[in-house]
Amino acid sequence: MDIPKPKKLDKPLFEIKEDSIVKANGAGYYYCQTVPEYPAERAEKRDDRKAKYVYLHRAVYERSYGFIDEKNFQVDHIDGNKENNSLENLRICQLGDHQKSHTERGNHFWEKSPMNKKRTASANDLVQGTLKLYFGSI
Which CATH class, in words, describes the domain spanning 1-107? Predict the structure, then answer.
């Protein structure tokens, strides 16, 4: 699938509420709210907040270029700095390429995810149990 060439909109889709920008939990990304409100089906509910939020880097990009096909593409920080949310530092890329760019920059995001740590521990327990079953003590 080809990456669509961004074409700047004549006017922004929405404004970012500056007083709504908050740092995300652990991953280093920032969240924000928009006016008018970002479409509910595209925003996410944070556990620590009542309102719906969107990633700041995604809002900055989509504000100027329009909504992206979120099933196939993501907005990436070109320099890898999650605090640099300037439009010039953002690009759209395919999902696999986005993960690859993180890995090449040394960000092994899957190791940081609490969900993956739980899964890894469970998978490890399963492997150990299977080995014990077939080979006795290991």
Answer: alpha beta
